[in-house]
Hints:
GO molecular function: nitrate transmembrane transporter activity
Protein name: NarK/NasA family nitrate transporter
Distance between the termini: 47 Å
Oligomer: single chain
Radius of gyration: 22 Å
Transmembrane segments: 20-42, 54-73, 85-103, 109-134, 183-202, 233-254, 303-322, 334-355, 361-382, 394-418, 424-444
CATH architecture: Up-down Bundle
InterPro entries: MFS, MFS_dom, MFS_trans_sf, NO3_transporter
Largest sheet: none
Membrane topology: Multi-pass membrane protein
Amino acid sequence: MxxxxxxxxxxxxxxxxxxxxxxxxxxxxxxxxxLMLGMLSIKIKPELGLTDGQLYNLTIAAILSGALLxxxxxxxxxxxxxxxxxxxxxxxxxxxxxxxxxxxxxTELLICAVLxxxxxxxxxxxxxxxxxxxxxxxxxxxxxxxxAGNVGASVTKLVGPILIAAVPAAGFFGxxxxxxxxxxxxxxxxxxxxxxxxxxxxxxxxxxxxxxxxPLSELMAPMKHxxxxxxxLQYTVVFGAYVALSGVLPQFYYATxxxxxxxxxxxxxxxxxxxxxxxxxxxxxxxxxLNAHPVVKDDLNTLSKWIGLLAAVCFVFPASLLRPxxxxxxxxxxxxxxxxxxxxxxxxxxxxxVLPLGLGVWGFTGALFMLGAGMGVGKASVYKMIPDHFPRExxxxxxxxxxxxxxxxxxxxxxxxxxxxxTFAALLTLTIISAMWFAAGLVLERKPAAxxx
Length: 453
């Protein structure tokens, strides 16, 4: 019996809802784990005495782990079912996530980042799992709802500073559950255990496996089409750049606009006057200075909360929560039309962020919101085009597109590190190239075929 047959429609509706709900919740939490260093780095960097280069290495290590296996996880999901693969992935992430709370050096944190970073592959699992359960005319919205789990990138930004301030510095149970920033990975590890149980026991036992029994060569066949690589570049622009910016945005706000924000929020005058000095402190010197000035320490925590809120509400939220809207628009008007509008919005925002317009923190935040909105809608339109053109290879094609897109989250930070100040210029350049390829593809599609003589 096929997934869309009339007799299966009634029972399948509830099963589809369970698959979509569980996969979205799983993706949200795993995405939060994958990118948790973005916000925690404000606390971790001075405590462990990390350099900017080491911080980039940690970010890249986690992103690579969540990118390089995306093709494999997509294929495994199509072959063995999303229930099995998602549960196994969640359980794998538990231990390294917990161990982040125990690190005392850069090397230990790097090893943990490589291991817990595997959580990023949950995207390929969820995309293939949901696509197998939903009919074509509803895939855009379903995949968009699932993809809104990208909002997990904002969980640490929003909840992290609040929990860090609320949990006693000594932690609980004599320090078994640590306080400060170390409480966050412990909380995530506990939630991952509960999530694995929910996915295993609440999702449909008879899973859908569209690639069951099909040889790998057949699943790889679509890779010869240029369209697959075009989608990969588009996803680099709307997702890879999103991941990269999510990882560095809190630190970018802190380094570039921290003093201006401290003034805007009427924080302690001593913090404002000493802000540049405090930014340069590391390790024991940083800790000693804050212990000697508790009011400054409290205001720095307040500033961290505001930075997390700004990064979440003005970038991560639109880049994540608008994904279902992008899916719905793609179902209704066609993914290509939606993608064209996305490119226009991102090019306008990119120009505003690159040109010397003297935007200030609030003008910068407005342009960032527009950029995030384009990314949110664009992520859905790219993944709507995949089942439209490759309906039987969603796991493989979606996995490869996700892999290459996520690699953009690695390459962009490297470019930014190599060329200081190139953050948005590099992104704008990439957007222009992708938009030109997209436009050329549309022209070639509409070009009439030659009539034989």
